[in-house]
Design a protein that fits this description.
By secondary structure, the protein is mostly helical. The chain is 93% helix and 0% strand. Keywords: Membrane, Transmembrane, Transmembrane helix.
C-alpha cells in the first residue's frame, strides 16, 4: 500500500501540472495570434481607410503574410506541445496505470484465494474489479473527448480566420468601389462595426473553448479523485470492518 500511495501521489502531481501547462500554453498561443490579427484589422480600418488603393493592396498583402506566419507559428507550436504531451503522457500513463492495476490485481487475487475470508468480501472484491474495468474504459472515452475538444478549438480558430477574411474582403471591396464621397463615412462606420462584431465573435468563441477545456479537465480530475477515494474506502473496509461499520 505504501508503494501504491507513492504511485498515486506522483501520478496526480505530474498529471495536473502537465495538463494545466499544455492547455494554458495552447490557449495563450491561439489567443495571442488572434489578438495580433485583431489589432492589425483595427489599424487598417481606422488609419488606412482614406487611401483606398493603398489600403486595398497593403491590407491584402499584410493579411496573406500574417495569416501564413500565424499558421506556421500555430502549427509549429501545436505540434511541439502535442508531441511533448503525447510522449510524456503515454510513458507516465502506461507505467503508473500498469503498476496500479497490477497491484490491485495481486491484492484481489491474494484476498479472494484466502480460505478464511468471508463470502461477501469475495463478491465485494469481484465487484470492485469490475468497477476498475469499467472505469478504465470510461477514462479512455474521456481522453477521446479531450482530443475532440482540442480539434474543436482548432476548428473554431480556422472559422475565426475565415470570418476575418470575409470581413476584410467586404471592407476592401466596398472601400475600393464606393461611388460617392459622402458614402465614404458610412462605409467607415460599417468597417468599424464589422471589426467590433468580429471582436465580439472571437471573444465568445474563445470563452466557449476555454470553458470546454476547463469543464473536461475538472470533470476528469474529479472522476480520478472519486475513484481513488472509493478504492481507499474499500481497502479500509476490507482491513478494518468493525471501525468502518
Amino acid at each position: 500500500m505504501t508503494t501504491l500511495s507513492i504511485y498515486l501521489s506522483i501520478y496526480l502531481s505530474i498529471y495536473l501540472s502537465i495538463y494545466l501547462s499544455i492547455y494554458l500554453s495552447i490557449y495563450l498561443c491561439v489567443s495571442l495570434s488572434h489578438l495580433s490579427c485583431l489589432n492589425l484589422s483595427i489599424y487598417l480600418s481606422i488609419y488606412l481607410s482614406i487611401y483606398k488603393s493603398f489600403s486595398f493592396a497593403l491590407s491584402l498583402f499584410l493579411y496573406i503574410y500574417i495569416s501564413k506566419c500565424i499558421h506556421i507559428y500555430r502549427s509549429l507550436f501545436t505540434s511541439i506541445y502535442l508531441s511533448i504531451y503525447l510522449s510524456i503522457y503515454l510513458s507516465i500513463y502506461l507505467s503508473i496505470y500498469l503498476s496500479i492495476y497490477l497491484s490491485i490485481y495481486l491484492f484481489l487475487i491474494y484476498y479472494t484465494c484466502m480460505g478464511c475470508i468471508k463470502i461477501y468480501y469475495r463478491f465485494l472484491c469481484i465487484h470492485l474489479f469490475h468497477f476498475l474495468i469499467y472505469f478504465r474504459f470510461f477514462s479512455f472515452f474521456l481522453s477521446i473527448y479531450l482530443s475532440i475538444s482540442i480539434y474543436l478549438s482548432i476548428y473554431l480558430s480556422i472559422c475565426n480566420l475565415l470570418i476575418y477574411f470575409l470581413f476584410l474582403s467586404i471592407y476592401n471591396f466596398i472601400i475600393y468601389f464606393h461611388p460617392h464621397p459622402s458614402f465614404f463615412f458610412i462605409l467607415r462606420y460599417l468597417s468599424s462595426f464589422l471589426s467590433l462584431l468580429y471582436i465580439f465573435f472571437h471573444l465568445f468563441l474563445s470563452y466557449i473553448t476555454f470553458l470546454l477545456f476547463s469543464f473536461l479537465f475538472f470533470f476528469y480530475s474529479f472522476l480520478h479523485f472519486l475513484f481513488f477515494y472509493f478504492f481507499i474506502y474499500i481497502t479500509a473496509f476490507l482491513f478494518f470492518p468493525p471501525f468502518i461499520s
